[in-house]
Amino acid sequence: MLDIIKLLPDSVANQIAAGEVIQRPASAVKELMENALDAGATQIDLVVKDAGKSMIMVVDNGCGMSETDARLCFERHATSKISKAEDLFAIRTMGFRGEALASIAAIAQVELKTRRKEDEVGVKIVNEGSVVKEQSLVPMQPGTTFTVKNLFFNVPARRNFLKTPQSEFRHIVEEFTRVSLMNPNIGFTLTSDGKEVYHLYPGNLKQRIMGLFGSNYEGRLLPVRQETERVRIDGYIVKAEYAKKTRGEQYFFVNKRFIKHAYLHHAIENAFMEMIPKDSFPGYFLNIEVDPSDIDINIHPTKTEVNFLDVKLVYAILHAAVRKAIGQHNLSPMIDFNESADLNNDFGAAMGMSNPLAIPNVPLDPNFNPFSKEHSPRETHWEGSYQPQKNTNPGDWRILYGERTDLQNVPFEPKEESQSNAQYLQVNQSYIVTTVKSGLLVIDQQLAHSRVLFEKYLKELENHSGVSQQELFPQALSLNVNDASLLKEMLPELENLGFALEQANPTTFMINGTPTDAAGCDAVALLEKILDNYKINRTDLLLDRKLNMAKTLATQLSIKPQTRLSEMEMQNLVDQLFACNVAEVAPNGKKIFVILNMEEFFK
Fold first, then answer.
1. Minimum mean pLDDT among 12-21, 394-403, 551-560: which range?
2. Does 554 reside within a domain?
C-alpha cells in the first residue's frame, strides 16, 4: 500500500498559517505596527487604501534590518525574539513567533524597504505569494517601510468573505487604537485614501485617550494606580455617569499587549455594581504589568488571550484598584466631631462677624397643649375642609391612593358625552387620570408622549418632513473615527428628523440645528445616545435603522415623570395618543394606560 502522508509545500503551509494569523486587512495592520514597535520606532505612520484591500503601508523610524535579515524575515518561524522554548515565558516584545511576515507574504504582494543607521543605503525586497521576485539596494532614511498590496490576491475565496469597506476600515481603526493607546510616548498617524484621520503626538496616556476618543474625555476619566510586589495596574476608568450601552471603550492590556479576558472584566463590572444600570457597561483603559514568567501569551494565534499564573490575585488587586479610584472620586467632605470648640469662633471671624456664633435659643412653653380648646387657633372639624368635585362620586378619590394589585385592563370606551367636558387630574405629576364609561382611565404621561413622538418621527423619516430649529451657538460633537463613520452613515435620516449637521473634520461635527421637539435639550448628549442605541441594534436594513432612531428620539425627548401639565396639555396629549395607530403600547413595549373597573375595585 502506498504511503499517504506527505509534507506540504512551504507556500501551502504559509497560506494555512495565514488563515489563522491574517483574517482581514486589520490583522496585517496589527502585525506590521507591532513589528515597528519592536524595532524601537518613535514615529509610526499607517497608510491604507480601499480599507486595506488595495494597499497597507507602515513606515517607521526604527532600527531597520541588514540585507540578510531582510531576506530571512519572510521565512516561516524566522525570529530574533526567542531561541529556545524557555524564552516563551520571558517575552517582553509584541511579536516572537516569526509567523506574521511569512503569512502576509503568502497571500499578498509585499514590498520591504529597510535600512540600519550604520548602513549607507537600504535594501528593497519584493515578495509575492512567498516567492522573492526582486532584491536590490535603494537610497532611503533609516527605518523600515512595509507595503502590502492586493491582500488575498491568490486566495479569492477569502477575499470574497471580506465585509464592506466601511466595516473593514473600522476594524483597522480598532487595531490602530489598540497599538497606539498604550504607547503614548510614540507618535502615530493614520491616513486613509489620501485623508489624514489621526495625527497623534507623543504625550501621556490621558492625552492619547483624548486624541483617540475625543477631547470631551478630559473630564470623564478617573486615574487608577495600584502597585504590589507582583502586579502593577495603571490607567484610567470612565466615570459611572458616562457608562454606555455598548462595550465600546473597554481596553485591557497586559505588559502593553491588548488582551480579552472575561474574568478580569467581571472584576471591573463588579466594582461598578449599583453605580450604573444593569444594561450599561463601564469604560476603562487599563494596563496590567506582571512578570512575563507569570503569564502565558502563546495560547492564541493572534495573542489576544493570555493565561495568568494566579488570576485570582490579579482579579482581587484589579477590583480593589478600581473601587479605590471610584471612592476617591465620590468622597464627600466629612465633619470632624472631635474638632476644637474654637472652630465656631474661627468660622465667624472668617465670615467677618464681630460676635461669635451661638446656638439659637427657642423659648418653650411647657404648659402648651395644641389639642385643648383653649389653645386651638381654629376649629378642628376638618371634614368640612374637603369639598368633592361636582358631578363626581364622593368615593372616587380613594382609588387614586389605594393599592393597584389586581387591576384588570378592559377595552377603552370613551365617554358618550363630548370630550371637551372631560376633566383631567394629574397624579404625582406623572399620571393622567380621567373618567370613562367603564371606570377610571389612568395614563402614564411619559409613555403616552413617547408613543406620540415615535409615530411622528416615523412619518418624518418616511416623508422627509422633519422641521429644524437653528442653534444660536452651534455645538461641536467630537467622536472617535469609528463613531464618526457611523454618524456619517446616519446623516440622511438625521436630516429628515430635523438635525442640521456639518462635518468639520473626520472626527468632529458641528450641530447647527436640532428638531423642534429638542428645544432646550443637550444636543450633544442626544446625538451620543442615538449613536449608542444604533450601535446596539446596528443592522444593514434601512427600516430597522429608522425604527431604532425614532424610538431613541421619542424616548429621550418625551416628557419625564414629575412634570406638571395643565389641563389643556393633558387633554391634548390624550387626544394625540388615541389618534395613534397603536395607542396601547409604548415603543419600549410597556403598556401606556389601564382602565380601572370601578365595581370590582369597590368590592
1. 394-403
2. yes
C-beta of residue 8 within 8 angstroms of C-beta of residue 35: no
For position 148, which CATH number holds? Answer: 3.30.565.10
Last residue of a domain, one of 202, 230, 254: 202
3-state secondary structure of 262: helix
Read off the pLDDT of each residue in 303-318 and give the average, rounded to a whole number: 85
pTM above 0.85, yes or no: no
Amino acid at 480: N
What is the β-pairing status of strands 131-138 and 122-128? antiparallel
Looking at the structure, tell me whether residues 162 and 39 fall in a common domain. yes
Extended beta strands in 90-174, E state: 109-115, 122-128, 131-138, 143-149
Going edge to edge, which strands form the sheet with 439-444?
A: 425-427, 431-436, 439-444, 593-597
Helix (H, G, I), strand (E, B) or coil at 595: strand
Considering only residues 100 and 344, tell me which one the structure prediction assigns the higher pLDDT.
100
What integer pLDDT is reported at residue 460 of this predicted model? 87
**Grid cell of 58 as nine digits:** 507602515
DSSP class of residue 80 equals S
CB atoms inside a 10 Å sphere around CB 361: 6
Q: State how far the Cα of 507 lies from the Cα of 217, in Å rounded to an integer.
A: 14
Query: Rounded CA gap, 56 and 146, in Å?
Result: 8
Give me the residues paired with residue 426 across strands. Answer: 432
Q: Looking at the structure, do residues 479 and 512 belong to the same domain, yes or no?
A: yes
178 assigned to some structural domain = yes
Element (H, E) at 229: none
Q: Is residue 407 part of a domain?
A: yes
Beta bridge partners of 594: 442
**Percent of the chain scoring above 90 in pLDDT:** 34
- Bridge partners of residue 436, in order along the sequence: 439
Query: Hey, how many other C-beta atoms are within 10 angstroms of the C-beta on 596?
Result: 21
Same domain for 195 and 222: no
Q: Is the Cβ–Cβ distance between 445 and 573 less than 8 Å?
A: yes
Q: pLDDT by residue (tens digit) across 96-113?
A: 545 788 888 888 999 999
Q: What share of the chain is helix, strand, coil (3-state, %, to 5)?
A: 35, 25, 40
> Rounded to an integer, what distance in angstroms lies between the CA atom of residue 402 and that of residue 398?
6
Residues 428 and 560 reside in one and the same domain: yes
Statement: residue 449 has pLDDT above 90:
yes
- Give every CB contact of residue 227 below 8 A, 6+ residues apart in sequence: 233
How many folded domains does the chain comprise?
Answer: 3
> For residue 183, what are the domain limits?
10-202
Residues 306, 449 within the same domain? no
Q: List the one residue out of 146, 139, 172, 181 whose CA is nearest residue 59.
A: 146
Contacts of 540 (CB under 8 A, 6+ apart): none
User: Same structural domain for residues 136 and 265?
Assistant: no
pLDDT, position 7: 77
pLDDT in tens, 356-377: 545 555 555 556 555 555 544 4
**How far apart are alpha carbons 91 and 72 in whole angstroms?**
21
CA–CA gap between residue 185 and residue 183 (Å, rounded):
5
**Contact status, residue 519 vs residue 489, Cβ threshold 8 Å:** no
d(C-alpha 47, C-alpha 193), whole Å = 8
Q: What is the pLDDT of residues 220-252, one digit of tens each?
A: 999 999 999 989 999 999 998 888 877 778 999
| Closest-CA residue to 267 (of 318, 324, 329, 304) | 318
Least confident of 17-31, 446-460, 491-505: 17-31
Nearest residue to 20 (alpha-carbon basis) of 83, 97, 81: 97
